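Bumping with the actual sequence this time:
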Amino acid sequence: MSAFASGMAEAMAVRRAGLTAKAARAEAEASIKARAEFLANMNHELRTPLNAIIGFTTMLKEGAQYNLSAEQRDSYADYVLQSADLLLSHINTLLETAALDGGEVAMEPASIDLPKALEDAVDRAKIAAAAAKVTLDVKPDPDGASAIGWGDPVRTGQALDHVIRTAIKFSSEGGRILVRTLIDQQGWGEIAVRDRGPGMSAEEIGRALSAFAETHRGLDRSFAGPGVGLAIAKTFVELQGGRFSIKSKLGEGTLVRIALPPPVADAKPTADEEMKLAG
């Protein structure tokens, strides 16, 4: 009986190992497919603004041939600037994705002035917001004016860039995005970004936070893009020991929160320790 039980246990172990290997293969194949789709989509995303830059720059250079008015020249220059900004954003996304995929993300923790970090991120997003005809509303919060976080300033800025650009991408023309800094009850510094876009279902939030996912619905390309911004932002924040959360409801928009722990104060010796040090 013991031999029979032992044989059954061994057979079950072999079966479990086989199922585990099968699941691992399926996961690997899905990952490869997702990366291929991501790169194919990124190819399109890079070419589109680059072609616009070349086309409008050519027309500006040969303005006499096209008999452009001053207003047209200004408009074309704006298109070039907007396309260059979009191209840079896509290149940064590609490089950051490659770094995360290869485990090559270095962190240099420091104290971060979160209101200043948010102000800088909003400045970087102004071109994209103007192109989308979306308003970035920096609403100061009295409690958040002195919000300080502990983390990597560069990675925090990159995370904010992705969150704000995603909010812009999902906002309709004339939309308004509310951004502000807060301090939560635990003393963590927090940045909140709120849009009034189409919102996401729980399933779409899961997809948005999975690398190489695309959250747009059906064949509607109006909200299309590389689709990894929120996943990158979440990873950067959590690698710093921070918190990243999304609350969204279809038809009502999305709220993204980034929270970083307060700086670790320099340890001060206790009275007993001071006496021991004094001898």
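The tokens above came from a reply further down the thread. The chain is about 55% helix and 15% strand.
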